[in-house]
Amino acid sequence: QVQLVESGGGVVKAGGSLRLSCTASGSISSLGRMGWHRQAPGKQRELVATITSWGHTAYEDSLKGRFTISRDNAKNTVYLQMNSLEPEDTAVYYCNADVTDRRFFSDNYWGQGTQVTVSS
Q: Of the four listed, 23, 41, 116, 120, which is most buried by Cβ atoms within 10 Å?
């Protein structure tokens, strides 16, 4: 069984910063691509950023320069540094990861989400 647990969300004023963390635990053999998505009220879930196990990153174009994704493979953790936050960034942020478990079955897992609220 594999779990992803996010942390670091909260309420911040516009222009502020937050750093989200997501740690994978359980019966893990290896972690592949990890990423962050977000879902604002009344909107569809959208991709924020992804990072491969060797560190290649990709971002939603509109977020480049403000958001930075990174990972610590030794800790099975992915991070999202968010700077110059805007009210439009208010959403629930979800972590996901491609996981190969110790039975060598591969699947994609999601965390429960962490709320980010940016006040104007």
A: 116
